[in-house]
Specification:
With 263 residues, the protein is mainly α. The protein has one domain (2-26, 69-262). Helix content is 60%, strand content 8%. A hairpin with a 3-residue loop joins strand 1 and strand 2 (115-121). Helix 6 runs antiparallel to helix 10 (243-262) and helix 7 (177-199) packs antiparallel against helix 9.
Length: 263
């Protein structure tokens, strides 16, 4: 009894450590600095004459903000952000496995029936409260630990987006294609996972199917939460001043994490 309690405490502590590591490592990207000529440009003379205007306020009104202009360079940086988000997703699965004392395996899969890809599979099977590794050893963290492993990629995406949108609420108007690429990948892949799960196109070892089958979480509830979180992240990108959206989203993300503690 004491050994099971210690294993459960270790699994939940490892889950917290894993999430902290994901937050610390998932966004190690450099801010884009403005070009030197923009930094060194001197302000316009104060005595510059303004043309006559029928409305005095029109002469002093600031120009309306617009998103940065598309360039091939920004497109390449955007793609780099998406690739980094993909690497972070898979790295979080790997970190979660190692944090729980499990050596994962790799398996080739096809997404949507024709896109070749690979999956990091924990190879852990649970019967009731007892879980065993592929080599027959007992998996001490049990279902809470297995849930943390299989949901690690999606949880990392959600917390990465949270850091991006909290630190840069006006991201849409910023010249930050790397972060925009990360945000786009994280939200769109979450939506893709949910739609593939609902239509039966998700691979056998897909994240949401694994969370339900291996982790024991309710499929419809969890998939709806993942879809809603991604949709609200997109809404926050376009409406950064709607603070109620941010708080609803944060509560939902913490709830996805908290499922492991309710098992």
């Amino acid at each position: 009894m004491k050994r099971n309690l210690q294993a459960e405490l270790r699994s939940r502590l490892a889950a917290l450590v894993f999430l902290a590591a994901a937050l610390a490592a998932g966004l190690t990207v450099a801010e884009e600095r403005p070009p030197p000529e923009a930094r060194q440009a001197s302000p316009p003379p104060a005595a510059t004459a303004l043309p006559a205007s029928p409305d005095p306020r029109a002469a002093t009104a600031p120009p309306e903000a617009t998103p940065p202009r598309f360039t091939w360079r920004s497109a390449a940086i955007f793609a780099g952000g998406a690739v980094t988000a993909l690497a972070a997703h898979e790295s979080c699965h790997l970190i979660a496995n190692l944090a729980m004392g499990n050596r994962p395996g790799f398996q080739s899969v096809t997404f949507l029936g024709f896109i070749p890809y690979f999956a990091i599979v924990p190879s852990i099977h649970c019967r009731g409260e007892n879980c065993t590794k592929s080599n027959g050893e007992n998996f001490g963290p049990g279902r809470p630990g297995l849930y943390t492993i299989v949901s690690a990629g999606i949880q990392c995406q959600q917390y990465e987006d949270e850091v991006i949108l909290t630190w840069r609420p006006g991201l849409r108007m910023d010249n930050a294609p790397f972060r925009k690429g990360m945000l786009a990948f994280n939200t769109l892949i979450s939506i893709g996972y949910v739609l593939a799960n609902w239509t039966g196109a998700e691979p056998t070892d897909g994240d949401i199917r694994g969370i339900h089958r291996d982790g024991g979480a309710p499929r419809l509830l969890l998939s709806s939460m993942i879809l809603g979180i991604a949709a609200v992240d997109i809404a926050r990108y376009y409406y950064p001043h709607a603070r109620w959206l941010a708080w609803i989203n944060r509560v939902a993300k913490l709830s996805v994490t908290g499922i492991a503690f309710a098992m």
